[in-house]
Amino acid sequence: MVVQGRYWRILYVACATAVVLAVAFLTVLPAFDAVIMSARRGAPLQAYRNTLHDPAFAPAVLTTIIYVIVTVPVQLLFGFLCAVHVYLARRPLVWFTIYFLPYAVPVYAGVGAWRWMLDRRGYLATALSHFGVAPETWLGTRALATLCLVSVWCFAAFVFASILARLYRIPAALHATAATDGLSVGEWLRVVVWPQIKNTVVIVTVLRIAFMASKFDVPWLLVGSTSTASGRTFTIFIAERIGGDARGSVGVAAAVLLAGGLAVLFGLASAILGRRALKEVRNAT
Amino acid sequence: MRRSPALGIGRLLPAIAAVFALLPIITLIGASFVRNDLTGGGLRLTALRAPTTANHGEFFSAIVSVGRDSSTGLTVLLRYFRNTVIVAASTVTISLALAVAGALVLTRSGFRGSDGLAQASLWGYVLPPVVLVAPYAHLLALVGLAGSLRGLVLAHVGFCLPLALWLMTQYFAAIPLEWDRLADLDGFGCFGTIFRVLLPRTAAGLGAVAAFVAVLSWNDIVLASILASERTKTLGAGIQDAFPNETLNSSSTVAAATLWVSLPLIVCVVAAYASLIRRTRRQWGLSL
């Protein structure tokens, strides 16, 4: 039963007003302004045409697609395995801290650490050169591979924490039944765990796709200041083209295209999964 | 079915995962103890044979000389660090206050469309900072906040708030409405119910949301690069500018400084999430 009273109603109205104003002025208004800024006076679609004809546009989109396709499944698998391990481990807090630590490390420190390891004289690059990979390529022609590796390291912990939170909500009775039935580990994962975490995994996948497609910090710190084409994602393309006067620029038009693409992704996910799944993953997160 | 580490995953996979998670952090710590004349092009293991604490000493000397000498890379870095702490702390405070207010309305007011609105806040993912940076620059210039820390805080709140609201709603929804009614009957009143019943029971959730927002704000590069001035830059945008002749991995002094200025965030985030996990396990009757 909801508590209702004069003071509560005043409080609800005050809170709702504050939040609506904040979201309207800080999120919705800038989003509309981005669309307005992308249109040049007299030629509203010119910036979009220029974006599509920009020679760096297609490579940046392709790089982003590869980046998302590689990093999201690896994050999911790594996060899932770590979550199951922490769920079953004897010292869950210790293991949780170990697996979660990369997420807590600021990206400039994380990227810096990987650069120490994979630069041309770094110990990891040197060790990998024994397998025929030239050490100087990790931050050069193979920068996309390095970017994927660093991104998985930085962000798999989000998947791990989301799945772990959902695992904790599996009713203990299900585990007890599984133990009574003598299920093997594979059967336990398939019959007990998977049906419970399925919706969470699907929504986390959608969130990760959106998150990785719009990721700027790691790509910028790793390859943004170099001239190599490998690893230059769509967000770097946007940032480089926003420049001083953003009105009607390729950068703003590309940013609107990115938001539009993400909106389509979310719209499709909402339509396919429905509200129930969204509510469930909210519970898990 | 046994519940032990050996179950299915074995011991090898966790060991590999732990090495993968910890190796970069250990590397950064190691790099901070290498003599600067042995660096360049990455960390060689041979360089660790003669460790030195001089880089850390240099960092703390810079802290002591803040205000007297503002020209060195380290003092510039410390200014960026101060800006980062101010912006992240302000963003966390404002976002949390608004998220709690929003969650209160969405879960307690009985408003019919609250479920849809709570899920709509998830659409905040559609508007990442790189999409909003140009309009923010335009709008902040209109209201005279261009290049200021206040402008940067507003921009950070703008992209953190939808996600904070989405998460906070869940923590409030988990508290039975019956408790509100009982608190009301006991004469707690609105604010008594919120501060003595609701907030204490969402403390772990508040910590987790605060940590989530802090990570987003602390790691921001694109907004700070374009919206902040030289005086108001934060670490993400400015760490490479503080040492113009070096990259993130060309100097052990930079490694030591990076380590120290990252420590507050690491400690706060791990503590907040570990507390949430500890509370959740206790709630479900699992051992710690």
Describe this entry's structure for a reader.
- The complex is a heterodimer of chains A (285) and B (288).
- Chain A has twelve helices and no strands.
- Chain A has helices at 6-38, 46-53, 57-88, 92-104, 107-118, 123-128, 143-167, 172-180, 185-213, 217-224, 234-242, 250-284.
- The radius of gyration of chain A is 23 Å and the shape is globular.
- Chain B is mainly alpha-helical and 288 residues long.
- Chain B has one domain (5-283): MetI-like fold (Orthogonal Bundle), CATH 1.10.3720.
- The model of chain B has no long low-confidence stretch (mean pLDDT 85).
Descriptive labels:
A: 285 residues; mainly alpha; 12 helices; B: 288 residues
CATH superfamily of chain B: MetI-like
Major pleated sheet of chain B: none
N- to C-terminal distance of chain A: 25 Å
- Helix-strand pattern of chain A: HHHHHHHHHHHH
- What percentage of the residues of chain B does DSSP assign to strands (E)? under 5%
Count of strand segments of chain B: 0
Count of discrete alpha- or pi-helical segments spanning 4 or more residues of chain B: 12
* Oligomer state of the chains in this structure: heterodimer
Structural class estimated from helices and strands of chain A: mainly alpha
Largest interface: A-B, 112 and 112 residues
What pattern of helices and strands is seen along the backbone of chain B?
Answer: HHHHHHHHHHHH
The percentage of residues in β strands of chain A lies in under 5%
Main pleated sheet of chain A: none
